[in-house]
Amino acid sequence: MKYTSIQEAISKGKGQVFLRGWVYRIRSSNQFLFIVLRDSSNIIQCIIEKDKVASSLWKTANKLTIESSLRLSGTIRKESRAPTGYEIDVKELDIVQVAEPFPITKDFSTEFLADNKHLWLRSRKIAAVMKIRSTIVGAIHEFFRSRGYFEFDPPIFQPIQCEGGSTLFEVKYFKERMYMSQSWQLYAEAAIFALEKVYDMSPTFRAEKSKTSRHLSEFWMAEMEAAWMQLDEVTEVAKDEIRFIIKEVLARNREELKILKRDIKLLEHYAKTDYPTIKYSEALELLNKKFKMKIKWPKDLRTIEETKIANHYGVPVVVTHYPTEIMGFYKPPNKENPKEALCFDMLAPEGYCEIIGGSERSLDIENMTKRLIEQGEDPKRYEWYFELRKYGSVPHSGYGVGVERVVAWLCGLDNIKDAIAFPRTMTRMIP
Q: CA–CA distance from 65 to each of 37, 61, 123, 139 (Å)?
């Protein structure tokens, strides 16, 4: 016998099939037992009719519980009333394990489901999200490799900060102290002098004391860095990447999007539409004139402001030239207006806000030293980084994509914690 997936059996449409999986739902009467079987590909209804099978099979089947694992064989046929349009008349059944009473049923709280995420992963919703996440990660690799980028892996233990000391996770490193990576950026900048164009997909750690639906303490970031690239070019690469990701999800995951009740036509619109680029100063003007807000320079944009900007355009929008004074030490001031930094964020519509952050990289050691001192950092710890500017320095740029934020947006999730299998937050350490 050759076992196939449920989806392969549905595609076959008729004849004998051999399946294995788990009981998704089960109901019975005196004469019939209906098992909805699931595997990683789909679900299908299987029917056992008491008068048409051996008494031993009927007796065995009645032992089944939700999430019991089994193997079966039977004849598949069309049945419009079945959940996926097909049904299997079971001829043989082999129980691998009868599951204990499954703790997850209907109407449990979000907190209960989070406590049982190791089991909640089996739900169709979370499985659909994980499949889409896999497509997104694969698309990122394909996008950069097709453009001649080299994958370059950074250290996770790092001696210095990149995105502000207040969000560092400090760890004991033998007799010294180190920090969990906030970004690969500083090490990627070293790599571009050898490889020119690099990218990476790696875990990132931020000790942000935030309990919002948009923040995680451990998340994945897809980052790129390229020699010779300036702000106007790097923003276009970011736009191309997001459109490419959406197209891949649409090509590979329409069934999962349907399970999640995602608006596919809206995603198709995002995939083919041009994304606007505006300056921070233009964003302030929009907020203050159209939405009657009173946002003043150099205030950083909050979720409420980002939402209004992105929803105004109805597609992802790139905002550039944020105030230098609120940006990282490595984001250079604009020579034409030093109050503006050569940096950008991409804001996603529908309330998902910032999904990408990036910039040109400063080449001015003196300016970076001054800004590090202002942040309370010891510039001597950055000597190796400054040396990159002393030996053949060139203009270069890069950005990072928050993988979970993109997953949450494309899946239409209410909470970013559902965009990763096992979220880590201020209040969530297990499972």
A: 12, 9, 16, 38
Successive 10-residue mean pLDDT values, the chain, 431 residues: 95 97 96 97 97 93 96 97 96 96 88 94 97 98 98 94 81 94 95 98 89 88 98 98 98 98 98 98 97 95 96 98 95 97 98 97 97 92 96 97 98 96 92 93
From the list 53, 29, 33, 37, the residue with the least C-alpha distance to 4 is 37
What is the DSSP secondary structure assignment for residue 347, as one 8-state letter? E
Six token digits for residue 230: 């300036």
What Å distances lie between residue 101 and 44, 67, 119, 338, 423, CA to CA?
A: 22, 9, 12, 65, 26
What distance lies between CA 61 and its chain's CA centroid? 40
6-97 in CATH: which number?
2.40.50.140
CATH superfamily placement of domain 114-419? Bira Bifunctional Protein; Domain 2 (3.30.930.10)
What the block records as the tokens of 9 is: 């059996």
